[in-house]
Hints:
The chain is mainly alpha-helical. Helices cover 63% and strands 0% of the residues.
Amino acid sequence: MTERPPQRTPNRQLAALISEAGFSNAGLARRVDQLGLEHGLDLRYDKTSVTRWLRGQQPRGTTPALIAEVFTRRLGRRLSAQDLGLDACAPVYAGLEFAASPEEAIDIVGGLWRKDSGSHAELRKIAFTPAGLVVPSRDWLIGRADDRVGRGDHGLNGGRVPTQGRPAVPRQRKEPERGAGARVTSGDISALRSVGELFRALDHAYGGGHARQALVRYLEHEAEPMLRGTYGEQAGRRLFAAAADLTRLAGWTSYDIAAHGLAQRYYVQALRLSQAAGDRAYGSYVLITMSRQAVYLGHGREAVQLARVAQQGVGSSAPPVVQALLHSVEARGHGVLGEVRACTASMVRAERALETARPGDEVPYWARFFDEAQLADEFGHCHRDLQQYRVAAQHAERSLQLRAPGYARSRLFCRVVLATSRLGLGELEQACQLGAEAAQAAGEMRSVRAVEYVRDFERRLEPYRDAAAVRGYRDRVSALS
């Protein structure tokens, strides 16, 4: 006697939500496929797939989370897979949440650090999602600094270890000298700042892949226990500010190795930590970092929106150098979109802002890199994207003349912009010489972006592949490897 397959129970929760949302079966399937594309997934669901789900079949992998996100967007309230009668799985936007409280922010970012420092290679394969930029930037813009961030007798949790949710300290501790609830000192916070400067210098000179994992492990084993320690309000704000800076840097180095979805999550969490710090200006810096990533990935509209949110959030009282930085990044977004007038207007605003800066101005540490060399670099990229090659070459040359040697990766990028501009002007030999210099520099770094800049230049060389200068370029580059 053959055994009958188990009887499935019809999914009445899903049926009710489909009715509430006004979806047809085919319409729901189409929306799930479209959302999958945002995450780099090629899904092929149709109305028959939805019929099977309604009969009780459980979709596999991340699909339950995708279905829940479709309904969340349609109905305007957060729904989980369980709310739809589906098996639980990790939220599709895990790590992109803008936490409701400092405690929740610590939980989310701590989870990211722990997973990233381990063997979770899939975390570095998560796709970038433009839709994941909207809610965090909006919540930051309309939000305000948390009323209380201190932890102790009068701080968060009243100094008590939470009895629900995640444990107050990581389950596996390798450094017993910092126990649960240990008091955070000024020296601890200064150490975080010093570590940030060290890793920043390594990133500029050798690329994000050089010491990224060491930075993430430091965040897991040092920064998270501090955030879960004991501290007053003033120290707490400083601690959250230092943690925000290191988290943004973890995102930046992830972006440099093309772990774009992971970088996006680090940026969102750095934005939330900056709110806990009460540092509105630094939040604007995180947003323009997000804007730079959007530019690199070709999402010009989102890049412009992020830059404008940053400008609106920090207001007109920001130092001229900060204003120049914000406007120059907006210009980059317009350049990617080919919007000549808007790009030019943003460049003019950036230039005028920097001209009003004075040596005695108080400039945040994170904006001090923005000088005439950086402005020329931004302008070179903008004019290259607008195919205004003569002006692009002028700005790129000026940036290379002014830029300090320690900014090796930025110099490489600028050299490629100059090479591309020379190529656009028909100066093939000069272009190939500059391109070969950039290729040699890229070989000495651990930076996917550096490699991609060189590859972009090489794609532009294809129409001239039979020219002697291009053959010479290929010979030089082959010899490097």
